[in-house]
Design brief:
By secondary structure, the chain is of the alpha/beta class. It is 44% helix and 23% strand.
């Protein structure tokens, strides 16, 4: 899976620019705040229909413009695909091969991507929201069933939480079983897919972490809760748990159990990384998880995703930089940095210099 080219018009700080990418390593370099990350963000947006940096699409529109346009031509194992997004103040239109898609689920899987930046250290350091986000984004790109279940689960969860705030307790108790049966149906899909994902991810994470640390430490990744059986068994278990929690949920006014509250255990040499890992350990563990995610995509889809590394090299020491370059040698990668010569170490690549939202000839 490779992106051949990317066209940006009035996107972030880009007025009108076209990027041509090679199948291997592509290095966007230049001073800070010139637009390197904006280009990487545009690629991820076309892969997932969302940005990791903002909540409202209108923030992607260049200041002074009324709309933004992103177009990418890519190639996957099924052939050529063109994805285009037109972003307006209050709406957007996304087309795949010229056909307008009705929902985000129809976008997933055409171009898969894995995004890693220093901000992704939140994956280890911050609360469970970040680790659930990691799983949701990754699994959704290869499973439309998961993405659909997640949307429906969240919608029903919102309705259940609204009901729990009602002052009529008898109404709540009469209505909760109706919501709970539907909620557990979709929750079981989410949980089962997450368990399968982590079962595949954990061995890769352990292997990559050992490589990056020269075997000095061991990384263990696992769910913080254990669910047994198939989807029907999981749904039945969840339904009973929700019933047992009625009093607690009524008192607090929200749903206290379910996949929206689940987390991951991340252990480094047997110690909880979330609480005790150093900055360096956190960085290495997060990178190992992201490299493992790349392998999961390869396993499930039959081809590597596009790997986006945003200002990652500046956070790694020399040995880890060289190991990372070796790990990604056969994967199309878009890497951003300030000084290309300081991170490449002779690696063959397509270098693109960015200055103030424009592609400039490389300085000699």
């Amino acid at each position: 899976m490779q992106i051949k080219n990317l066209f940006l018009q009035n996107f972030r700080n880009y007025e009108c620019e076209r990027f041509d990418f090679s199948d291997g390593l592509n290095v966007l370099f230049g001073k800070n705040a010139q637009g390197k990350t904006n280009c990487a963000e545009a690629v991820f947006y076309l892969c997932t229909g969302a940005s990791l940096r903002i909540r409202h699409d209108k923030q992607l529109i260049r200041i002074g413009a009324e709309s933004a346009k992103i177009v990418a031509e890519a190639e996957n194992r099924y052939g050529r695909v063109t994805i285009a997004a037109d972003i307006y103040e209050n709406k957007r239109e996304i087309r795949v091969n010229g056909n307008k898609i009705a929902k985000n689920a129809d976008l997933m899987g055409h171009i898969n991507s894995v995004f890693f930046s220093p901000g992704e250290l939140r994956l280890i350091q911050d609360g469970p929201d970040e680790r659930r986000r990691f799983m949701n984004i990754s699994i959704s790109q290869t499973s439309s069933a998961y993405y659909t279940a997640l949307l429906r689960y969240n919608k029903i969860l919102d309705q259940r939480n609204t009901l729990l705030k009602n002052h009529d307790v008898s109404l709540i108790l009469d209505t909760l079983p109706v919501w709970d049966e539907q909620l557990c149906k979709y929750a079981a899909v989410i949980i089962k897919k997450r368990v399968e994902f982590l079962d595949k991810l954990a061995p890769y994470a352990k292997e990559y972490h050992a490589l990056l640390t020269d075997g000095a430490e061991e990384l263990v990744v696992r769910p913080d809760k254990k669910y047994e059986g198939e989807e029907s068994d999981i749904a039945a278990t969840l339904l009973k748990k929700l019933e047992n929690n009625y009093e607690k949920d009524l008192r607090l006014g929200f749903t206290t159990f379910g996949p929206h509250r689940d987390d991951l255990d991340v252990l480094i040499s047997g110690v909880d990384a979330k609480a005790y890992a150093s900055q360096g350990q956190t960085r290495t563990a997060a990178l190992a998880l992201k490299l493992s995610e790349v392998q999961i995509f390869k396993m499930l889809s039959g081809e590597y995703p596009v790997l986006i590394l945003d200002d990652v090299m500046s956070e790694l020491d020399l040995p880890r930089r060289k190991k990372l370059l070796k790990c990604i040698s056969n994967i199309q990668t878009i890497l951003t940095c300030t000084h290309a010569e300081r991170v490449l170490y002779g690696a063959e690549c397509n270098k693109i210099r960015i200055e103030n939202g424009r592609i400039k000839p490389e300085k000699i």
